[in-house]
Design brief:
The protein is α/β, with parallel strands linked by helices. About 50% of the residues lie in helices and about 10% in strands. Belongs to the thymidylate kinase family.
Length: about 160
């Protein structure tokens, strides 16, 4: 019997703004460092030069209303670049990948928040990612008022 043991993992951290993704990612990063594991830490949107430019478009479009389909397509365009240029090459090298947000965020924000049909996001996910998925997703959850308290200018 030939059993192969996976040597590296693609880990994503998901959660709403202010829930502690950055703090949790730093903790996981310290665990990986202490264990002597080579890893790449990255984020979405972003992670590559092209994906960072797309991030700028997504976050700085206040002068002009961005259609929800445009927004969704930009997220997946950045994700395609990110996966093919950074995530898969790191995994192919044997490194672990720790990513702040991934496709789950599209389902939460574009489907749940913006009303884009789930099937449309699933179609894009299949087209862009095929069967590529994170090995582990850490979903952070907190009572709604706790994360808000951490954001600048919010008083509860």
């Amino acid at each position: 019997m030939n059993v192969s043991v996976k040597k590296n993992y693609f880990i994503t951290i998901e959660g709403i703004e202010g829930v502690g993704k950055t703090t949790s990612a730093a903790y996981v990063e310290s665990l990986l460092q202490d264990a002597g594991i080579h890893f790449v830490r990255t984020r979405e949107p972003g992670g590559t030069e092209i994906a960072e430019k797309i991030r700028e478009l997504l976050l700085m479009h206040h002068q002009e209303h961005m259609h929800i389909d445009t927004e969704l397509l930009l997220f997946f365009a950045g994700r395609a670049q990110h996966v093919h240029q950074k995530i898969k090459p790191a995994l192919d090298k044997g490194d672990w990948v720790l990513c702040d947000r991934f496709t789950d965020a599209s389902f939460a924000y574009q489907c749940g928040g913006r009303g884009i049909p789930e099937q449309r996001i699933e179609q894009l996910e299949r087209w862009v990612l095929g069967d590529f998925r994170p090995d582990i997703t850490i979903l952070l959850h907190a009572r709604y008022h706790l994360p808000l308290r951490l954001l600048p200018g919010i008083k509860l």
